[in-house]
Target: SecY-interacting protein
Amino acid sequence: MSLDSVFDQFIHRYRAAYAEANTPLLTEAHDDWQAPIYCQHHADETEANGQVQWQPILQQEPLQFDDLANALEQPFHPDIAIFYGRWFAADLNVEYDNHPLILLQNHCREDGERLQANLAGHVLMKRRLRQPITLFIGLAEESDDLLITVDNESGQVGLEFVGQPQHEILAPSLAAFIEKIKPRIVSDEEA
Model:
């Protein structure tokens, strides 16, 4: 099954899991962004904490990585464009093999630009360290410096500590990885 189909199904499962748990999807609001995912400020919270309800929105014009790849003279694995260019969404709380993970997403175009700048920095760091190029897609909740990355050459999804090469392969592809993860319910008390 194609990555876009697998990802669409996961987004559906994610929304359904939160609905079944009667827990709103909440994220931190960025006042300077006109993010299409923002629905409303959470009624039970003061606006001081900046939480808003959100919903995933299919990108009408997918985020493009061609200019960044050309500037870095480094083609990106095609899965990255689908992963970050399919949906506008808040970061996704997931579980993989009983480990809590956070998959990064982008709220809007401005967030996508920030994400691309961070990816560029990651690629440049990998070059400087003479390590295989990876592209981050998330992080482990257990450790701030443990990244979930896609190997740019093979497309394998693995774990790596910041500044280190991948040390554990989780799945042979991003589609296979997304098929294995489960939505993890995080309430506003935990956020």
Notes: The first strand starts at residue 26 and ends at 28. The domain at 3-183 is CATH 3.40.1580.20 (SMI1/KNR4-like). The first helix runs from residue 3 to 20.
